[in-house]
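Action item from last week, closing it out:
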Amino acid sequence: MKPPFPLLAASLATVLLALAVPAVAQNAGQIASVRAGANCPRCNLFQADLSGLTLRGRNLAGARLRQADLSLAVMNRASFAGADLRDVNFYGGVFGGASFAGANLTNATLVGAYLEGANFRGATLAGVNLSGAEMDRATGLTQAQLNHACGDGSTQLPRGLSVPACR
């Protein structure tokens, strides 16, 4: 006997199958390439674990690195220009001369990060924790950006700029 609504039954089966298979939010191949030292502009590196790696001068401009772990990474002169860096952990990393121009760093953790010479022109710093960050020679920073971030007494900023204390 045929189901009364064959199209509906097929649609329901497709939906149930889709629910059983988890969605892939990241591109494992692209993450592996970056971990091996490749440039990967505009790549999907969502939740990538790049912690502790040395990836100097890499181009990750426009990449999606949301919720990635870059703690203790050494990425001097890397380009994160225009990248999605929301909720990224940069704890203790070395990013001297890196470009964060136009990047969205909302709620990122830059605690103890080395950011001398890094470019923050046009970057979104809402909710960013800069406690202990060394960035007194960073460029492109404005007081308006820093008013939306927080830091502590050990945060080193360019002369004339300040950051509210983290609560």
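Closing note: Residues 8 and 14 are 10 Å apart (CA to CA).
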